Amino acid sequence: MFNVQTGATIIALADVAGARPCWTEFLNLIPIFPNSFAVTTRHGEEHRFVAFGRQAWIDALEQRATSG
């Protein structure tokens, strides 16, 4: 596996509206592997991240959203 994106994405926890599991896709079309998650902001933006242990990330974001 490789990541073709560079740089950093910074999203304030207060701006996170939700997170959900999604698939890594080839050419944004063909699902390849279920190792990604999408974060939706309160501004309606969606950011996708590839990560091992995606459910732990989703759970942590949801826990933070309900406690904060």
Distance from first to last alpha carbon: 35 Å
DSSP summary: helix tally: 1
Radius of gyration: 12 Å
Structural class based on helices, strands and sheet pairing: alpha+beta
Strand content: 35-45%
Order of strands across the main sheet: 1-2-3
Order of helices and strands: EEEH
Name the poorly predicted regions: none
Q: Characterize the main sheet.
A: 3 strands, antiparallel
- Given the C-alpha coordinates, what overall shape results? globular
Q: How many individual β-strands?
A: 3
Overall average pLDDT: 84
Fraction in helix = 10-25%
The gist of it:
With 68 residues, the chain is an alpha+beta fold. The chain contains 1 helix and 3 strands, in the order βββα.
Word description of this protein:
The protein is globular, with a radius of gyration of 12 Å. Strands 1-2-3 form a three-stranded antiparallel β-sheet. The chain is of the alpha+beta class and 68 residues long. The mean pLDDT is 84. Helix content is 21%, strand content 41%.
